[in-house]
Amino acid sequence: MSDRPSEAAVRAWARLERAHRAAVGTVEARLAGAGLPDLAWYDVLLELERAGTGGLRSFQLQAALLFQQYNLSRLVDRMTEAGHVAKAPSPDDGRGLVLTITRSGRALRRKMWPVYALAIEEAVGRHFTDAEARTFGDLLGRLHPSG
Amino acid sequence: MSDRPSEAAVRAWARLERAHRAAVGTVEARLAGAGLPDLAWYDVLLELERAGTGGLRSFQLQAALLFQQYNLSRLVDRMTEAGHVAKAPSPDDGRGLVLTITRSGRALRRKMWPVYALAIEEAVGRHFTDAEARTFGDLLGRLHPSG
DNA sequence: TCAAGATTGATGCAAGTGCATCTATTGGTA
DNA sequence: TACCAATAGATGCACTTGCATCAATCTTGA
Q: pLDDT tens across A53-102, in order?
């Protein structure tokens, strides 16, 4: 925890930054070019859609996506205003909110997916064989809490 | 270019987002906790220091770091104002600027490094063996233009 | 050599982010 | 039960980013 990093670790870190910037740049450009909302919106929609009718509490969504609390709070505001997300008071916790995706949110996610998918292929897929992509995904998985 | 991505590619992309967010979160928190400027400042300082006395043109720095043009323009403004970067008109190109790091910029980078290094170890290094970190770095390297 | 187009970097304005802090509620402890 | 720390989520304010566009300069090609 308090050791200096190895050369290899420093190189990996530096490349993580560049690779991420390049990949996100490509994907955001494709989404914007198609007149679609940005990645954060997709992330929220997907996570809420996966959660099903029960929805998710704000803090769960925040933990899943690793967004900042204040950031997510305002993002959800915007998406609620746009009609893609619904907020309801939590029955279990008077402080809390339950967030669910709306029909319009599901439609938006479906509309975004084809563009997003092509962008992922362009930004990531085409650089790897399937086996490499699996290895890459495994290594990336080590870096975040949820496994 | 126009194919759908494989499952493995989509998973790798999703994990790239999460891993990056987690790692950057850790590193920014350590820098901020030590009262130091953020990552972008370090990136600029390092790149300019590597460039030596000749400095770099704005567009070169932009390409190296994959920053947005308008973003870098204003970041350099702030760093110049803080005395860490010097701007000079390019002798070869009347439109252009040559950016160099100042003595104070070098000092700042040196001061940031120990904190940054520990953060890199915490965010990345400790999750991998050296061999894994090398493999990881190689795979990441595929995703950005400069090799 | 001169006009048309491309490139470099800056900037006004709107939108998003980060920080600190706030209110409301909950859970733990005495 | 009554208090106090902890947690959920919202928000005011300053700063940063994104978008569109600008002015200045360079390059190309007739």
A: 999 999 999 999 999 999 999 999 999 999 999 999 999 999 999 999 99
- CA A63 to chain B, closest CA, distance in angstroms equals 11
CATH of the domain at A73: 1.10.10.10
**Amino acid A4: pLDDT:** 87
pLDDT for the residue B145: 67
Distance from CA of A93 to the nearest CA of B (A): 28
CB–CB contacts below 8 A, A to B:
191
Q: Does the residue B1 lie in any domain?
A: no
At residue B101, the 3 state secondary structure works out as strand
Note down the domain range covering A41: 7-128
Environment class of residue B113 by beta-carbon count within 10 Å: exposed (0-12), middle (13-18) or buried (19+)?
middle
- Which parts of chain B have pLDDT scores under 50? 147
On whether residue B104 sits in a domain, the answer given is yes
Only one residue has tokens 């300082």, namely B45
Q: Are A130 and A124 in contact (CB under 8 A)?
A: no
Please give the tally of structural domains in chain B.
Answer: 1
Look at residue A141 and tell me if it is in a domain.
Answer: no
Which residues 69 to 128 of B reach strand D, CB within 7 A? 70-71, 74-75, 78, 93-95
Residue A136 included in any domain: no
Nearest nucleotide, CA A28 to C1':
D18
